[in-house]
């Protein structure tokens, strides 16, 4: 919930604890969990949860926004690597590990399709284009691969991990499939 002003330090800590607790509880119990277990896990009262997140949808939106921002940060880190092959490997293997770690978040976000991550998704597509341009210039990926293609393949990898496929295997297969023929 954006208020336009800085939160007090204790209020900011409570908000961060609620978000961390929500991620953990969503992983364990899924999207249908009530707010009370989240409050208990965060060590705050239910009123504190509702002051920060008036509805479960608002909480899910914030968890989703944070999750996509984390993906953007990870992609930006991969872009800092000079070697294009290593940058792509770090990006794909890091994404597969994050997808495995955050399978509960993916379940919740897929359950609540109205989560708006369009702005962050646009940034992520721009980052993917930059990464793809670098690896394509080095001859490391198929020349016909586009950023939306890579994004779609990453979504497919997320679904495979969600269904129980080993994340490292998903990353290896995806990396091999991206190579030029």
Notes on the structure:
This protein has 181 residues and is mostly helical. It has helices at residues 9-29, 35-42, 46-52, 56-79, 84-101, 103-111, 118-137, 147-162, 167-178. Helix 1 packs across helix 2 and helix 1 crosses helix 6. The protein is elongated, with a radius of gyration of 18 Å. The relative contact order is 0.11.
In short:
By secondary structure, the chain is mainly α. The protein has nine helices and no strands. Helix 4 (56-79) runs parallel beside helix 7 (118-137), helix 5 (84-101) runs antiparallel to helix 7 and helix 8 (147-162) packs antiparallel against helix 9.
Low-confidence stretches: none
Roughly how many Å is the radius of gyration? Answer: 18 Å
- Mean pLDDT score, rounded? 86
Order of helices and strands: HHHHHHHHH
Q: What's the count of strands?
A: 0
Percent helix, as a range, is over 70%
Fold topology:
Layout: H1 9-29, H2 35-42, H3 46-52, H4 56-79, H5 84-101, H6 103-111, H7 118-137, H8 147-162, H9 167-178
Helix pairs in contact: 1-2, 1-6, 2-3, 4-5, 4-7, 5-7, 5-8, 5-9, 7-8, 8-9
Features:
181 residues, mainly alpha, elongated
